[in-house]
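Annex B. Sample input.
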Amino acid sequence: MTEHAAVEGEFVTYSHIKTRKTFTITIEFPEEQALHILNILGAPVGQVSKPVAVCLLNEQPFATSNLSKEELSKPNPPPMTHGTSKEKSEGDKLRERACILCGEGSFHKWIGLTSNAGTKKGEVIARANILAQCNISSRSDLTSNERAQELFKYMDRDYREWLKPSIDEQYPDNLAR
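Annex B, continued. Sample output.
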């Protein structure tokens, strides 16, 4: 089974492609995540497409969410922006990170799952693990519960450290000497 992972980006604009009866969306990611994202998705090859899923992480409504068919067909549609320009709080970012981790097969392995890593059942178990470790009943509690935020930060830090390759993995030819 391949490992599935979610990445967080910002939906910034869209365009309508009348000749193919489709439309494209643009999702921007921090430049430092490029290699990680391409390792997850792979680079496009020729005419071969790859199915992906898109999920809304921030539940704020979009300012132009009720577009008509005519507005969608305009050659240069207005960029879709969030209803408010409010910066995300640290708690919102932690909640979103917790949601992303629940879908990562490597996180499933880190919490000790073997047979369910990378599956829907693994996601459910990962969610339950985060809730128990942070002593909360919902990942949404991370938006306002400062103690849970600190516990989650420790958990996430330990997971990120676990992801880093060891010196032996980075330089396997040194072991042969």
